[in-house]
Amino acid sequence: MGAKIRDYLAHWTVVVPVLAVAALILTWGRDLPPPVVVLAALLLGGAVLAAVHHAEVVAHRVGEPFGSLVLAVAVTIIEVALIVTLMISGGEKAQSLARDTVFAAVMITCNGLLGLSLLVGAARRHVAVFNSEGTGGAFATVTMIATLSLVLPSFTTSRPGPQFSPAQLGFAAVASLALYLLFVAVQTRRHRDYFLPITTSGKVINAEEHLDPPSGKAALTSVGLLLVALVGVVGLAKGVSPSIESAVDSAGLPQAVVGVVIALLVLLPETIAATRAAVRDRVQTSLNLALGSAMASIGLTIPAIAIAMIWLPGPLLLGLGGTQMVLLALTVVVGTLTIVPGRANVLQGGVHLSLLAAFLFLAASP
């Protein structure tokens, strides 16, 4: 028994998250020299891979679609903490950080994760098959809360600029959270079968058929290590963010690029997990991750930021600009046409990835 415990503790998926959190504690609040930034970046990458491993262990234990919720919600909760922390210390530059990060998360998940999953699934099996009823409902919810929280502030007149009044922000926060919770209830209880993986042959997969699920103890251990890994990921991302901001300023790039980089770092675990699910012909699981992450990014972030604005100084800029609105509208149209048939080929995946590329290019060169 002692040898088994030592072997388990020596496994990299246990050691790396612990090292990442230790590095986070040692470097928190300090100016990091370049060698330490490189080391933190390496530990950040290792923590991402460890988070993916533990999320898959938990997902295997609880089954779909509960497994997809584990990683999406865990990442989003810590993403909120990161945004609030940076807003507290960022001054005027951070007034639009929540908007930039949330919008980047929506574009990365609805075009990057979704497009990559479809491309990988269709490239291996000619077509990627998924349930259009569940995926369509998820996409409609993302569209609704994204429009409510990120588009309407640019058109309201109660406050100058792209911001809500306190009452409007409170309404958007409550509505976003209520829609997210309603979706979770539909996904996990009333219509759970809409979100179960479907193979290209049309077979619904209720559980992994060739592997015994991990024990309850192993699953609980992975839950704990998943949280540790995610704390390391986002904490180290904050630690290297001054270097990112300096690089952005030195390159003459817009401040919005910082939000894009933060979203890319935070969503790395979900990106890897979604791609691996698509490789195993579990495209529905990949889409659950992509759209669930987009929904959680808005449905949990906006309410948390609304509460944080009670003590945070300065305005909260939420409304998107014209270019961003066009990209969001194009994402909605293309996403709808992709999802309705319930089947996609490499072309649809390539179109979504092209949209992501356009977003990244225009973020750097508006």
UniProtKB/TrEMBL annotation:
According to the lineage, what is the superkingdom? Bacteria
The chain positions of domain Sodium/calcium exchanger membrane region read 36-188, 222-362
Residue intervals passing through the bilayer: 9-29, 35-54, 66-90, 102-123, 135-155, 167-186, 218-237, 257-275, 287-311, 317-339, 346-364
Keywords recorded for this protein, A-Z? Membrane, Transmembrane, Transmembrane helix
Major localisation: membrane
Q: How does it sit in the membrane?
A: Multi-pass membrane protein
Matches recorded under InterPro entries: Alkaline_pH_Ca-Antiporter, NaCa_Exmemb
Q: Where in the cell is it found?
A: Membrane
Q: Which GO MF terms are attached to this record?
A: potassium:proton antiporter activity; sodium:proton antiporter activity
Annotated GO CC locations: plasma membrane
Offer one Pfam family short name for this entry. Na_Ca_ex
Q: What is this protein called?
A: Ionic transporter y4hA
